[in-house]
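Intended use. Records such as the DUF3105 domain-containing protein entry shown here are meant for training and evaluating sequence-to-structure methods. They are not intended to support clinical decisions.
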Amino acid sequence: MGSSRAKEERAARRAKTEEMRRAEVARERRNRIITWTLSGVVLAAAAGGGWYVVQDARQEQNAREAAVAAPVKGVRTFKDLTQNHVTTQVDYQTSPGVGGDHNPVWMNCDGDVYTEEIDETNAVHSLEHGAVWITYNDQAADDDVRTLRDRVERTPYTLMSPYAGQTSPITLSAWGKQLGVETASDPRVRQFLDKYVQGEQTPEPGAACTGGKSA
């Protein structure tokens, strides 16, 4: 009995340590991206003799960070989401699902665009890794679908697929977060991506978006 409890405690400590490690990796990656961006701008400014370029870059970065910190109007939040691995279908709180029990295998979400509906339980696993899932139904305009496809293909930790059962023409989903919009030109599309791709809501920051299910 005591031996079993000790094993469980060791397993829990290992899981907690791994969770902290993933969070630290995600923070370090974000910091490196910011550092590389500013360093590149500094070099370009030095070569051209224009320090004002550096100032503009810093102002743009500050504006971006402020936008990420600001709430996105109309986003619905879902709490107390379970994270069990299951091999059966799940009745999610909303359509598409934004969290809860999910398939052990995630959908590839490294800017992946799927032209047919995908398994919801795999996609929810991708959200657990910090991805944003963009879905659309037959009410979405063809031009909007193309615009979103191009954006997703340029954005790591995103995926896109049709989803007939949703109420909005376009829906953006992250773990515990969801936003419905009418068009791809809605400024909240970019705001949602900026805020929730590998955002603070991510249960497993830094987890893979490749090596999962591709169709």
